[in-house]
Amino acid sequence: MNMPTRQPDMMSEQLRQTTCPYCGVGCGVDISCNVSPRAITLDTVKGTPEHPANYGRLCVKGTNLLETNDVNGRLLHPTMAGQSVDWDTVTDVIADKITSTIAQYGADAVAFYVSGQLLTEDYYIANKLMKGYIGSANIDTNSRLCMSSAVAAYKRAFGEDVVPCDYTDLECTDLLVITGSNTAWAHPVLFQRIQRAKLKNPNMKVIVVDPRKTETCTIADLHLPIKPGSDVALFNGLLSYANAQGRINKSIVESYAEGLDETLKSANALTLDDVAEVCDLDVNSIKAFFDAFCKASSAITFYSMGVNQSSAGVDKAQAIINCHLAMDLIARDGCGPFSITGQPNAMGGREVGGLANMLAAHMDLENPEHISAVKTYWNAPVMPKGQGLKAVDLFNAIESGKVKFVWIMGTNPVVSMPNRGQVERALSKCDMVVVSDIVESNDTLNYAHIALPATGWSEKDGTVTNSERRISRQRGILPPPGSAKHDWQILCEVAGKMGFGEAFNFTHPSQIFCEYAGLTGYQNNGKRQLDLSPLQALSEVQYNGLSPLQWPFHIVIKAENTASSNSKSNPNPNPNPNPRLTSKRPFEDKRFSTPSGKAKLIPVTYRAPLQVTSDAYPFVVNSGRARDQWHTMTRTGKTAKLLAHMPSACVHINPKDAAELGVEDGSLVSLSSAVCKDAPVIYPVKADTDMRKGEVFIPIHWSAQWGSHSKLGALYASAVDPISGQPELKHAAVAIAPAHFATYGKLFVSSVNQSAHNSKLSSSYEDALKHACDYWNTTPLESAEASSSVNNSDAALSVLNVASNKGRRDFTQGLIPLLPQNAVLLQFHHHTYSVCFALVDDTLCFAAFLGDEPEKGERAPAAAHTTAQAAPHSKSTWSVPNEWLASLLNTSVSTDIQRNLLRGRVDDTFINGDVVCSCFEVREKTITHAIEEGCSSVAELGEALKCGTNCGSCKPALSQLIDKHLVIEIQSV
Fold it and tell me: How far is CA 638 from CA 20, 68, 706, 870, in A?
């Protein structure tokens, strides 16, 4: 599943190295290519053995990169008002609109909203154009939503946004505290490194702080199921306890940090009982955590969205930093506050100033010297007079009419922002919305006046920086499909047409990188840790071959000047273009980037979340990542393999809450909030004993592209941290009620050759079926090999989980006109279920399995030959496994199979439960049976079933199943 590309080379096998486009771990990827005179084929993908981020490991998403790397659904040509146009026309329109908007309303009426999916070179050009040539700081990024609170806390404490830890610290620490991160799912490769480190060092302790008992807890010595939002109280309590235990050496701390006394005075107000009450935790568990931290000679606090996505996110991160500074657990091996990023280049965006409150190269918008330095370096005609609009404020300004033009690049804010309804209103009112993306359809593109085709992974060429400050190359292996262009190219073309061509006449990303690297060293003089100036004279060849490199650097040897400078607009060229560099630990001398050279402890106090529960909205919604998906699934949603583990989004709810609501697994529930009253959000229920009572969890990935009511962001109010502007996306207050319909069921759909069967049918065939339903969510299915004359490779199979306010017979009759005209229809209506399917030349092309909602408190009896998978409310005969139908669609079905379909009699092969191992499609019941037969470890399951032996992402789930099902016989003596 990759794009053939014309090449003049001789046929050969080649290895190309690049970087994974998913999370912030920054894994190296080796791609085996078959290069012929006519095409390049990307054949296999493996982790790069020598890359320091992953040492050959890849998670299930990275392992399946090539499965998602096709042109299906790609935006291939620029469009205006839905019509294809050429690049010259569209860039003329954009440049003219920006120029006229500035002339009429001022520079602050223009805004860019960009993404951690951009490469550093793209980010740099966007930032340079907006801040140095348009003259506004209104460029913000979706990174505002994931790590801006961590940025603000680092800047307050250290004077610079520097993550002071490396991945190796996770492997050599005595104590690892994981808080606000389901690392097993969100960063599986790092989780595997942690697992291995714990196996090698049995004395290493892992403590997980999370409201949910996630798969990350499989390696935890202690789990603290903290009340959402109460982290500040917990870490302030730790600081107070450490002080009371004599753990803090004030004379040592005061040699490298300021503010200790004030911070201790603020924290000392909390007793253990106070912490227990605020955090809703057991006193003994809290004391065990505090004792472990105070006794540890080294400690890492590893945190992510659960800390950052809060109206008190900066204070949460600061409370963590305070503990590390006060106990001298920083700037040495195995120590420090480690914020892990969620996107592949969120760090690179931070470096080049992609946020509205930052300048490039870790310089500040509020610092006149920094403004002057950047203006001089860029030879910029104008610079911002202050901070720009942060994400939530930006969309507020668009709605109010203050911002007239917005250019959205590589992100989907209608899905990811809080208060979806407000974001939709804002974009619908904006004079011009330009969207650069790789897909032809998503929730945000629905509001675009202009859509621009950008390059994606395997085409993009530049650099990314991962969570440990390591710069890696993401290499362009394939040329852009259609007329797609790199984001930096598009920006440079628009800048040129605005009259800024001389400052944006780049022809290769290496030129951009070198200019950026020079800026990091310009007037730096050791003031900032970020200094890439030794790289500013790289030649194009050197840039293309750049190996992963972690800043800050030691310059070991400066080689002779053998290469010409590649830098543009650079007033401070480096005469040594090929230095030998080695990494050093940030702040290793305990000198920080503040005016005094000392770090800052800052008093913080616990503040409750802004979105508070009430009688009207009694439940707390938490949200986060699923193991096998990424963001809004524009890439990972392309392959059924990555949807096998979690086919659709569910509301994870404590069984006691479910019982009180009168719902069970598969029931549909409606969620509403103070900002989402009229358009309910609907999901199926998944009862989950690992949830705290009164709290629910929903994965973030499924949007309105995947379900009629899948609009999670609509539930969240525009509550933000007052310093960082990061939204409170871990804590919404909602009401939950059963969602009642007359009919529930599944529609199995094949798009293969539908237009040939019915001239009225087209690519909108599935859309027509969706419109016939009052509720739906969709999941692509993997087609099976078949001996049918139908070409399976052209088929798109999917299942629609549906509900309707019509009765079963009426609903079925409404579907029939949408099916192929020459199809043979078979129907069977039982008193509890209905089946309808369509055959063309004996080939199955459609099937519907429908049932009634049982009365409240009733549960339809489960037939012996069915599974519990995917049945809304009822687990009666109509609830059939998706894989069974996927194996039959587009195949010639015998009379016996037709009878089994009508009766819902499932082939025994497909009743083995949910997929646990996506790589080898190993199911829960198969694993459970192996455990019952004697497999007592993950390694033994791997030997028997192969599960866990490829990417390893399923290993925590395997551990959970072993804990649940392993029976140890105790013989009496």
Answer: 17, 6, 12, 20
